[in-house]
Structures are given as structure tokens and as C-alpha cells.
């Protein structure tokens, strides 16, 4: 018997006449499903940490390899820069023999703030407390303190507290004596502003906090002084 699915001219004529059914279509195997192309992860690896990149490295296709390599190098460089920049974060106690190493040889691009103090002087204690807070706020700046006479023999107590600011070992500013700091009413913001004027720290304060107090005092004095018109009324 002739195969009705055979490709012959006679079968084609019979199919056109409706005598033979249409030729059955050969179904493709279900396994032959097109697999979706692997999507590039170039846009997603930028949000990953270095650890996540290592964990998912097998999922990156060839298109990503060079970009991943450059990105990894960039992230490592940024991490190292951050570690160097934020390597301080607390106030360090030194003695005179540490001065050269900690101040003069502090390093390239390093600001140093040195507080000379003595125990038993309340304003020195207050400033040490403020500097501890500022050291945490500005971890890229080296904050150090030293008992005055261990760094400078016979340094007079009347000059305390004293703050020196240095950049790359060179002195940039000095604040000497209690009057410079305004006494025991000194706030941390006021000290931050004062030090920032030397360039040692980049404050986020928009204006000198002391100015607000001065403006309030001036306003208070003006309101308590009688005007000329008031004096004339009293004379009448």
C-alpha cells in the first residue's frame, strides 16, 4: 500500500482533490526550546559589594569580565582610600618624645590638631571633651593632646589651653590662652568653628555659633538702654 504521507506528485494531486488528508506536520521535539540568552549583569554588579561580586562571579558572562575587573580595581582603590582617610577617629595622648613622629612626620595630606593642657585646669578638661567628639566627627584629621611641659619645657600655665594646627608637619594656626576660647561657656560647635577657620576641618556649620550669642547680647543691651525720646519724656 502506498504511503499517504509520501512526497509524490500523485499524492499531491489526491490531497488537492480531498481524497487524501493533508500531510501531517512533523512536530519538533519539546526539548528543542530556545533557551533565553544570558542577560548581561553589567548594570547590576555596580550595586554589589566586593564580597557579592566574588560569590556571583560564575554568573557573569564574557561581556562583563573586563568591566568587572575594572570595577573591582576601582572599588578596592576606594576602600583603601577610605581606610587611610578614616584611620583616626579618637584623640591620642602623646609625650614630647612622640612629637616628631606624630606631628612632624604625620604624613602627606594629614592635618594634625594638638592640644597642650594640664590636669586641674577646668577649661583644658572641657576642651579635651570637645576634641574627643570632634575626633569622631572628623576621622580623617589626627587629634592629639599632650601635657604642656612634656612637649615644651617650662611652658607657662597662663597660656593654657593652647591648640596648634599643623598640615603636613607645618604649623598653620595657634590658639593660646583662655581668653581666645571664651572661657567655660565654650561649646563644641564654637570650638569646631574656630578650628575650621584654620582649614584643619571642613565644618558643616553655616555660621559662627558665637555670632548668635553676640547678636543676642547686643540686642539685649540695646533694649535695656533708654532711647533719647524716653529720656526727654522723663524730663518733661
Report on this model:
- The protein is an alpha/beta fold.
- The protein is built from ten helices and five strands; from the N terminus they run αααβαβαβαββαααα.
- It has helices spanning 9-17, 50-55, 62-85, 99-104, 122-137, 148-151, 178-181, 188-196, 209-224, 228-235; strands at 91-93, 111-117, 142-147, 162-167, 170-176.
- It has a five-stranded mixed beta sheet.
- Strand 2 (111-117), helix 5 (122-137) and strand 3 form a beta-alpha-beta unit.
- The radius of gyration is 39 Å and the shape is rod-shaped.
- Residues 39-43 have low confidence and may be disordered.
* Rg for CA atoms: 39 Å
User: From the structure provided, what is the oligomeric state, counting identical versus distinct chains?
Assistant: single chain
Specify the number of helices: 10
| SS-based class | alpha/beta
Sequence of strands across the biggest β-sheet: 1-3-2-4-5
Number of strands: 5
Biggest sheet, in brief? 5 strands, mixed
- Kindly state the percentage of residues in helix: 40-55%
Question: What is the general shape?
Answer: rod-shaped
N-to-C SSE series? HHHEHEHEHEEHHHH
Residue runs with pLDDT of under 50 for 5 or more positions? 39-43
Amino acid at each position: 500500500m502506498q504511503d499517504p504521507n509520501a512526497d509524490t506528485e500523485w499524492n499531491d494531486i489526491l490531497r488537492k482533490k480531498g481524497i487524501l488528508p493533508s500531510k501531517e506536520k512533523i512536530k519538533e521535539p519539546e526539548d528543542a526550546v530556545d533557551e533565553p540568552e544570558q542577560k548581561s549583569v553589567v548594570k547590576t554588579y555596580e550595586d554589589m559589594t566586593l564580597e557579592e561580586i566574588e560569590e556571583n562571579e560564575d554568573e557573569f558572562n564574557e561581556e562583563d569580565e573586563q568591566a568587572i575587573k575594572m570595577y573591582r580595581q576601582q572599588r578596592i582603590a576606594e576602600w583603601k582610600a577610605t581606610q587611610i582617610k578614616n584611620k583616626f577617629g579618637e584623640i591620642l595622648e602623646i609625650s614630647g618624645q612622640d612629637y616628631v613622629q606624630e606631628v612632624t612626620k604625620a604624613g602627606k595630606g594629614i592635618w594634625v590638631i594638638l592640644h597642650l593642657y594640664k590636669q586641674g585646669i577646668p577649661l583644658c578638661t572641657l576642651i579635651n571633651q570637645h576634641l574627643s567628639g570632634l575626633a569622631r566627627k572628623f576621622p580623617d584629621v589626627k587629634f592629639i593632646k599632650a601635657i604642656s611641659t612634656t612637649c615644651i619645657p617650662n611652658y607657662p600655665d597662663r597660656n593654657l589651653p593652647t591648640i596648634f594646627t599643623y598640615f603636613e608637619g607645618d604649623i598653620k594656626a595657634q590658639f593660646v590662652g583662655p581668653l581666645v576660647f571664651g572661657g567655660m561657656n565654650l561649646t563644641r560647635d564654637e570650638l569646631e568653628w574656630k578650628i575650621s577657620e584654620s582649614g584643619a576641618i571642613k565644618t558643616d556649620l553655616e555660621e559662627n555659633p558665637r555670632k548668635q550669642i553676640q547678636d543676642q547680647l547686643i540686642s539685649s543691651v540695646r533694649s535695656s538702654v533708654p532711647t533719647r525720646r524716653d529720656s526727654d519724656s522723663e524730663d518733661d
